[in-house]
Specification:
Blueprint lengths: L3 E8 L2 E10 L2 E7 L8 E4 L4 E4 L1 E6 L1 H7 L3 E2 L6 H15 L8 E6 L10 H8 L4 E5 L4 E4 L1 H7 L8 E3 H11 L4 H16 L3 E6 L6 H9 L6 E6 L4 H6 L15 E9 L27 H14 L3 E5 L2 H14 L3 E5 L8 H7 L1 E5 L2 H5 L1 H7 L10 H6 L4 E3 L10 H10 L17 H7 L15 E4 L8 H5 L3 E6 L2 E5 L4
Parallel strand pairs: 1-4, 6-12, 7-8, 8-9, 12-13, 13-14, 14-15, 15-16, 16-17, 17-18
Antiparallel strand pairs: 1-2, 2-3, 5-19, 9-10, 10-11, 19-20, 20-21
Length: 490
Amino acid sequence: MSDLVLGNVRIPGDPAPVSVHISAGRVSRIGAGDESPDGARLIDADGRYVIPGLWDEHVHMTQWALHANRINLSGAVTAQGAAAVVRSLLPAADPADPAVTTVGVGFRDALWPDAPSLALLDSATGGQPTALVSHDLHSVWLNSAAANRYGVQVEASGLLREGPAFALTRELGRLPDSVLDGWVADAAHAAAARGVVGVMDFEMTWNRDPWLRRIAGGFDALRVEAGVYPADLGRAVAEGMRTGQEVDGGRRLLRVGPLKVLIDGSLNTRTAYCVDPYPFGGHGLLTVDPGELTALLERARDTGFVPAVHAIGDAANQVALDAFEGAGVGGRIEHAQFVRREDFARFGSLGVAASVQPVHALDDRDAAESNWAGRTERAFPLRSLLDAGASLLLGSDAPVAPLEPWLAMSAAALRARGDGRGPWHPREAITREQALTASARGRSGVAVGHAADLVLLDGDPLAVPDEVFAAMPVAATLLGGRFTYDGGLA
């Protein structure tokens, strides 16, 4: 790869133009705006702004790719409405072919005035096997034909939750490799066009081999760290894998991710494990015994795996932090949606990063208030976590929220969306600078010696209006000095 110079670029917050020199895939020099060594390719950035490449720290990449090719139910405000959407699209979706399962995604039943039921979905779909996956992936609404096809038992609600829902969701994703890999490539290129250079992929499967297949087939749009689940930890250890390890055959794009452990459910499914009871009773689900969790984190520590513990409810976060402390290991908590105030400082002192998805704060606002009106001050406490010494990592949890880093950063900085309502708990907002750093693995700017994973922007991200920041225009994305997205610049 020949040397490259990005000339006439600017650093956010600084109007003076500079040149960024790239050699062997790394930033080798940052100099005056007109410098260009002999033999280097010079690209005039025309005053655009350069930032470090962005990461989405929590995605389910296969599910995100599938999401774009399924019936979208995110706009349904009732169970009747969701069933009507499916009924209206059934002929176009599957031509009433019972060999194909109709799949919908994105429904949110926590605030529906009516409830999902087997009878309702049966009446809308007849004998066409139909499975509707909730936006948080923690429940699946089936009709009788789908229940029979996949050999699962459902109650009158037609709902599967948690483990059985995850298992069925994996089954629904079993498509020909050529089809699925093409959809994943499309999703990755779309992410690169938004400035994304890497993803932490927590797909619920043995995830290394599909990525090796994709990379061997030409995938090169993103860096990928592929998580491992407890069911596969023994296999991973036997194969000499450990978190952060570069995977042979991955062309320097694929690394082993953390050990992902789910210990509670979700807010929409009313299974997040919370200190305060839900209005209908109960505190949600704790799906891993605290002693088991500590033992699992000890095993992760001893085998070179960084633990990443899914904990949404405040009671689940307490259990997770207790386990990190008991095992004497740092790591990550995925989501940290509700956190007790007395636990804020424990993130920093224990070396546990908060891997958060700010768009969820907007999506789950009404559900949280309906469950704990007047007691949601501990919801998505980004500012409090930072102030207490925690490290933040920003992501989407795609397909739960779009794989769109600027939307996530906007949600973190504004705590509101353009729906006429004011910000939700605005004291928990963080600055744009902090959001950018949390989206770039702690990098607050471009520096000599860093990998040349860079993004060129059409505006200063620290100064553009809020609505522009939320949909920030990206001019180009580079991965190791190679363009993965070029909006006409090169």
